[in-house]
Design brief:
The structure is a homodimer of 279-residue chains. The first copy, chain A, has 279 residues and is an alpha/beta fold. Helices cover 53% and strands 13% of the residues of chain A.
Chain lengths: 279, 279
């Protein structure tokens, strides 16, 4: 199968590497408006050629949109305008605004909205790796609006990437994503800002980072170009979750300040219940 | 050397395993008021015998206090009352209140306050592992109040555990620990509470946890018996840091709510600077 990938960063590159390695793609065509990214992807070798959007879309049987959601909202309708009977999918972390944008497009049925829940804190074609998606979940959204053969093709692709496929409507997807992914990133960004503001002596941060800081702050290295549009497109959910999160932090703060030792103990015991769910 | 370890959980057990394995300890005596812990430690084999505090202290050349800080504040003066010319050290995560407690003890010089910055989210003797401390930092506090030979012995012990030894006064230690360790834990506990409150459908948390949630929530599995006293004994620093953290979260919240996309982008770029410091 000839596959076109639009956006040749961490995600697009990692998809390319494993789809080729596992025999799903015979040829991969890349599109990226950033010339440095495009050249790097070609040089690294995970795309066979780099060309313009129109030519890339025309040649491919499957088109994967792997750009940040603010770019996807502009590029997705253009891609749908260009296709004949090809299948189009995306990998964006927020789904509702994107699906709303193409709701009445005549080619809507050939598009399958997807969110493979995987990533690292790194970005760019240099960060692309094999195995990024193995064992994780990919969410297909609002599939009742997609053609059954288009869904089958995208589902097959995620099976090749070793992912569990989950179905969810886009509204529920965005709520869940706010809780389990977007809030974690804001929590980590704010933690980094807090520590950077205080710890002028950077050596101490490095020395003491083994105390748990390193794992909670890992996500604070994530790309602003990717995450700013995610927070913007999932604004209402993210703000709601942040309010809840800030309230829980205040409960800790006040109990600690008032020496309510039993209450602090209970809050931690309550939080420990996450053990049942996340290994 | 005969070593007594008081408190046979994750930390005490992990110290025991490597001090024996690496030839630093010839015999390890264990003390734990929890009979289940004591029996487990003996059964697992990282202590040679389990006995009462007085007998254990009398027999040993080096006594390591590996109990939570609220217990240490009671046990440390008792241990100092019992010793002749032995060396005593502890591994508590907060130092100022503990050091204040024994400031005028006649055996103060034989005590070396230490905080090896390592751990996992697990607890109990079953969680003890070899290599827990390798490559990390251990902080010795207020060493001007300790005997030079006592310091040398404790320093040697941490070298055997493959740790970098850092010197800091207890007040600075507690501030730094609040920023790089204690706040990470509260951030993670509050994140777990937020998600548990919302996500009644636990399967979704599990399915979606690969989106960054798993790494930020790992610390939320940590023991309330250990962490409640830490927050209590480092109250002022922890409350100050929490206030700063909550303000940064509010800055994110308000910029997202008001569609200040440039501001959100800048906040993330600023947070990204943590890359320079934490690998």
């Amino acid at each position: 199968m000839i596959i076109t990938i639009i956006g040749l960063g961490l995600m697009g590159g990692s998809v390319a590497i494993d789809l080729r390695k596992r025999g799903f793609a015979d040829k991969i065509i890349g599109v990226d408006k950033d010339k440095i990214n495009a050249n790097a992807a070609h040089h690294i070798g995970f795309v066979d050629e780099v060309t313009d959007l129109e030519s890339a879309v025309k040649q491919a049987e499957l088109i994967i949109l792997a750009v940040p959601v603010d770019a996807a909202i502009i590029v997705l309708p253009k891609v749908l305008d260009l296709i004949d009977n090809q299948v189009v999918t995306d990998i964006c972390s927020t789904k509702e605004t994107l699906l709303e944008r193409v709701r009445y497009h005549s080619k809507r049925k050939q598009y399958v909205a997807a969110h493979p829940m995987a990533g690292t804190e790194f970005s760019g074609p240099w960060a692309a790796v094999s195995g990024l998606f193995d064992g994780k979940a990919s969410i297909l959204c609002d599939t009742e609006d997609s053609d059954i053969r288009a869904i089958a093709k995208v589902k097959r692709m995620y099976e090749v990437l070793n992912m569990r496929v989950i179905y969810m409507n886009s509204s529920n997807h965005d709520i869940h994503a706010a809780y389990v992914s977007h809030i974690s990133h804001i929590s980590s960004f704010a933690l980094a800002l807090t520590v950077l503001e205080k710890e002028k002596n950077e050596k101490h941060i490095f020395d003491l980072a083994s105390g748990g800081f390193d794992s909670t702050v890992r996500l604070a290295k994530s790309s602003p170009d990717m995450w700013t549009p995610i927070f913007n497109h999932n604004k209402n959910n993210v703000v709601t979750v942040l309010d809840t999160y800030i309230n829980h932090l205040k409960a800790f703060r006040d109990s600690i300040e008032n020496d309510e030792i039993e209450k602090v103990h209970q809050l931690i015991e309550q939080a420990n219940k996450i053990k049942r769910i996340v290994k």
